[in-house]
Amino acid sequence: MNVNYPLVVKTDLNEEMLVECTESAQTAIEKHSNSNEDAAKMLKELMDKKFGGPWHVVIGEAFGFELTHQLTNLLYMYFGNMAILVWKCS
Contacts by 2-9 with C-beta closer than 8 Å and gap 24+? Predict the structure, then answer.
């Protein structure tokens, strides 16, 4: 799988948010290729600034999840073998 191509598994984001989030996730992963924690922190800060917080971000290769989120505020996708989960809840 091409690492530069996002594979969206589940989302209810609007088109603007989806484009912004996928591009920001790719930037964060490329900038912090040695630290998933730093990449997640960068993506969270970008989403909080652009769309208001609180956003939550998990980036990694192997994790399961079950969560509650606000409607129209969830994205679960892959870049290569890296999974990215982004959601908002207050």
Answer: 2/80, 3/79, 3/80, 3/82, 4/79, 5/79, 6/77, 6/78, 6/79, 7/77, 7/78, 7/79, 8/75, 8/76, 8/77, 9/76, 9/77, 9/78
| Per-residue pLDDT tens digits for 40-63 | 999 999 999 999 999 999 999 988
Q: Are 28 and 45 in contact (CB under 8 A)?
A: no
CA distance 51 to 36: 22
pTM value is 0.90
Q: Which amino acid is at 59?
A: I
